[in-house]
Amino acid sequence: MDRTDTDLIIAGGGLAGATLALALAREVPTLRVTVVETFPLSPEALPADYQPSYDARSTALAWGSRLIFDALGLWPELSRHATPIRHIHVSDRGRFGATRLHARDHHQDALGYVADNRWMGLCLMRALQDTSVRWRAPAEVLDMMPTESGVEVTIREQGEQQTLTGQCLVVADGGRSGLREKLGFVTHTEHYGQNALIANVTTSESHRFTAYERFTDSGPMALLPHDSPGEPGHQSALVWTLSDEALEEVLALSDEGRCQRLQERFGWRLGRFIRIGECHHYPLALTTVDAPVRSGVALVGNAAHALHPVAGQGFNLALRGLMTLVEQFRNAHEQGRSLGELSVLGGYEQHHRQDWQQTVRFSDSLIRVFGQSLPVVAAARDAGLVGLDMIPGAKRWFARQAMGTGGRKPVLSSPNRSGRKTVPNGQHSG
Asked: Which NCBIfam families match (predicted)?
């Protein structure tokens, strides 16, 4: 194999790209990895401390994702600012159907966690400081051409175009950068005709570490426990689904008016809504790519699939896919094969496909079934929720989807590298 500048080029150093880089540094330390990131931040230029913000954006981490971060040696630090989800309550507003999940029923400390995106990124960057991963930032991947030895990637750094050669390019810069389309990948997008409004809220009653999935006649909403130092037990992360018209109305309201509108839609399970923070919003769609790999390039994370956020499955699905890709790269590297070989990347796509198809169906069906207001459909929903709450087998299946332990389990090394650890269920294998 011809000598190249690097072995792997990762386009995007956000949560997905940084996690992939760290996992490869842990699993395949002799692999040369270069991250190209548009934001002007690298592991060598980190803020000295972390100050939690009320308006910080957050991510729901399933139990399976916690086990992945555990295997990477990151969880002890990350958990310092992660709020556990010990109960999940799913209900249909104005109707009797409901189901409840409890961590203790599954012999776990939590079903999942909620962590600030900025804190997660900072933990990843700090961990990357002690690795050989190279960071090009601020810089941007512009294009890629296949070569006999791998790929030739054109980047822009400090206003100048440069060329990097490697065995493979991984696109981890999300679904909105345009690089995916520039490289010729075909996407399929189904618009839900709704928007997600994201904000942090404070309630008069404690959340008691409960995540609420509330389906209403105008769209689903989720409230996830998300504590900050000043308001332990009373702060939640809100995902509120709104039509275009309803979104305009809510954005035009004062903070007090938004709390009142939210109270009308959610109800009083958390007492009174007394504060709402900065509101972010974006249109909702299900975006998938039929063939997320080709010779020399692979899509991961939101670049490969973007889901409705109310079920909290997007990043957890991406994380499992990243670990599957790491497994394929490790095997190829040990065998002296190029990372960009179609058989290597095809193995990642084959192993990950069932997981993403199942997760997409689970997430999409929740939105479509609970988004209909027809009486006969609503009655069927109620029966389904009641049945889910009463039938152990069905409830266990639902819990596995929520906890992120229902998919294939990639094999990673344990933090002390004394053996292989299978994640996300944490069982050891030889």
From this structure: PRK05732.1, Ubi-OHases
CATH entry 3.50.50.60 includes domain 6-403: yes
Pick the closest to residue 236 from 258, 260, 208 (CA basis). Answer: 208
Q: Give Cα 267 to chain centroid, integer Å.
A: 28
**pLDDT value of residue 391:** 47
Which tokens is 165 given?
């050669």
Question: What does pTM read for this prediction?
Answer: 0.86
CA distance 138 to 125: 15
Residues 149 and 165 sit within 8 Å (Cβ to Cβ): yes
Distance between CA 311 and CA 381 in Å, rounded? Answer: 17
pLDDT tens across 233-261, in order?
999 999 998 999 999 999 999 999 999 99
SS3 labels along the chain? CCCCCCCEEEECCCHHHHHHHHHHHHHCCCCCEEEECCCCCCCCCCCCCCCCCCCCCEEEEEHHHHHHHHHCCCHHHHHHHEEEECEEEEEECCCCCEEEEEHHHHCCCCCEEEEEHHHHHHHHHHHHCCCCCEEECCEEEEEEEEECCEEEEEEEECCEEEEEEECEEEECCCCCCCHHHHCCCCEEEEEEEEEEEEEEEEECCCCCCEEEEEEECCEEEEEEECCCCCCCCCEEEEEEEECHHHHHHHHHCCHHHHHHHHHHHHCCCCCCEEEECCCEEEEEEEEEECCCEECCEEECHHHCEECCHHHCCHHHHHHHHHHHHHHHHHHHHHCCCCCCCHHHHHHHHHHHHHHHHHHHHHHHHHHHHHCCCCHHHHHHHHHHHHHHHHCHHHHHHHHHHHHCCCCCCCEEECCCCCCEEECCCCCEEC
Q: Which residues of 62-94 are buried (b: 16+ CB within 10 A; e: fewer)?
A: bbbbbbbbbbbebbeebbebbbbbbbbbbbbee
Phi, psi of 120 (to 5 degrees): -60, -45
Report whether 88 contacts 211 (CB < 8 A).
Answer: yes
Q: Cα–Cα distance between 356 and 353 in angstroms, integer?
A: 5
Q: Which residue has the higher pLDDT, 201 or 402?
A: 201
The token duo for 75 is: 């969880």
What are the boundaries of each domain within the chain?
6-403
Main-chain phi, psi angles of 401, to 5 degrees: -65, -45
Q: How far, in Å, CA of 363 to CA of 68, rounded?
A: 21
